[in-house]
Amino acid sequence: MALSRTALLLLAMAAVSLLSADAALSAPATKVCVLGSGIGGSSVAHFLKQYTCESATAPCIDDIRIFERREKVGGRMATVTIGGDTFEAGASIIHPRNLHAVRFARLLNLNTKTGDDSDSDPKSNVSSSSSWFGIWDGSVFVFQTLPPPSPSSSAIYRKMYPLLNSLVLAWRYGFSLLRMDRFVKEMIERFILYYNDFESRPVFETVEEMLKWSGLYGLTHRTLQEELADAGLSSRLVSELVTVITRINYGQSVSISGLAGAVSLAGSDSGLWLVEGGNWQLAAGLISHTNATLHLHEGIDSISYAGGYYVLNSTKGNSYACDVTVIATPLDELNMTISPPISVPSRSLQHTFTTFVRGLLNPKYFGLNSASEIPDLVGTLELPDIPFSCISVLKKYSEEDMTYKMFSRAQLADVLLDQIFSKRKETVRINWPAYPHYEAPEVFAPIVLDGFHLYYINSFESAASTIETSAVAAENVARLIISRISSPSANAPLIISPHSAEGILHTDL
Q: Name one GO biological process term (predicted).
């Protein structure tokens, strides 16, 4: 029977539809797809493009897609607005010897400020010799530095104040402070090996190789407490000042693994800095500079290896074909299917509950008579009845009106906040799955998850979690991708022209 004209038309339309689908599947795959727009994802995009497009030794990788399930780039670098002012809510401070972050800020012409010039983060208050902080045991302050000089103080006292504060610290902790400083400096000297030139620095396929090469691997197999005992630190320093620092920086005690603990202590150095307006601008600027295609508010539900490329299905119902896929966000709490299945060690994330309050602290809660007697930073000891890790003043509008930032391991209920504060005008709460829960000995996920081209930047985060460690891990992953694409049968070392590497590895601070 002859087909009707209508039937022929329907068949033609179906054929066109099938041809269109086939054409879409056979279209050239996106070179690299990156999951996550934080510092890890933005850095790997930056390094991939710079190390290939500015060098004749490798094909230019300039087709990069970055997927971000949230509505804004930056990952755990984020800000919050309270009282009309903007403050850091996530990754807050950067060490002066974090060379990648230093270079990113310069490359992007971002305005920066040091922690000593800003009240925007409690960690900077710990580091500043001129800051006023106290250590609280739940009942009394067991130690305080000197309150800052009043405007009516003499010029001589204001000049002498930092020295006097140093003497106060030295009187309580003695030579253990010097031993702690030496312990941190030794770790930093090993870490800066990751900025060596490419001829002397290998491309690493595993985190274990990466840490063993720099001499840092052993620190991941012992607790910070064990390492500091061997370094000769007094029990008073460890149980007080060191504990305050680890509780602030990682929300954990001195039973944290040694490398994470050493990195945490480095966060108490002087000269710490941040980007004016928010550190998230580092990620946003790198993505813009790389000219990567950014997919905001589009997460990835599944990754499937299709033999030579990956198919990524998104939360918006879209499918993408990618030669290389880089996961730059923690897999631990990510609801995503990977096929064939991969195997990674079980790891829990340490949640930090950040509470911003505009109001005034209640002095009676701290056993004091006046709010003016409460230090600008209150750190706490590792005791079960203390409900928060720290409270710091972010900004003083008047003696009766301030903005505070609190860290805790659980959400702070309104009833408790009303005990801690005598006045509370505005409250903002954030629950961050901020970093891994560190526990020696650490076990690391693979960098190459499937043996092909599925990479995982956050495997390095089990060693330590900072803006800079993410950038260092991302740079290694970028070099690994390039070397494995350039030499599939053998991972030859990546050689890049001096021009393309200039200013990255030899930054003079």
A: prenylcysteine catabolic process
Nearest one of 339, 332, 335 to 315, comparing CA atoms:
335
Query: Are residues 131 and 268 in contact, defined by beta-carbon separation less than 8 angstroms?
Result: no
Side chain identity at residue 167, one-letter code: L
User: Can you tell me which residue has the tokens 């990466």?
Assistant: 210
- pLDDT tens-digit profile of 89-105? 887 888 888 899 999 99
pLDDT more than 90, % of the chain: 71
Task: Show the domains of the chain with their CATH numbers.
Answer: 29-75+279-348+440-501 (3.50.50.60)
Class of residue 436 by CB neighbours under 10 A (exposed 0-12, middle 13-18, buried 19+): buried
**Secondary structure (DSSP) of 427-475:** EEEEEEEEEE---SSP----SBSSSSSEEEGGGGGGT--SHHHHHHHHH
Phi, psi of 366 (to 5 degrees): -100, 10
Q: What is the dihedral of CA 479, 311, 75, 501, to 10 degrees?
A: 20
How far is the C-alpha of 509 from the C-alpha of 505, rounded, in Å? Answer: 12
Selection from 381, 334, 239, 244 nearest residue 35 by Cα? 334
Q: Which residues have C-beta within 8 Å of that of residue 467, sequence separation ≥ 6?
A: 39, 77, 91, 94, 98, 101, 279, 282
Q: Specify the pTM.
A: 0.87
pLDDT band at 115 (very low <50, low <70, confident <90, very high): low
How many CB atoms neighbour CB 221 within 10 A?
13
DSSP H helix total and E strand total for the chain: 15, 19
Question: Are 83 and 93 a contacting pair, CB within 8 Å?
Answer: no
Closest CA to 297 of 80, 73, 39, 76: 73
Omega of the bond prior to 436 within 30 degrees of 0, cis? no
Torsion of CA 293, 496, 190, 106, to 10 degrees: -50
The per-residue pLDDT for range 286-307, each reduced to its tens digit, is 999 999 999 999 999 999 999 9
Residue 201 is which amino acid? R
- Write out the H or E segment, with its range, that includes residue 123: helix 122-127
Task: Compute CA distances 242 → 182, 236, 246, 249, 488, whole Å.
Answer: 14, 9, 6, 11, 47
List the single range of 237-241, 347-351, 373-377, 483-487 with lowest mean pLDDT: 483-487
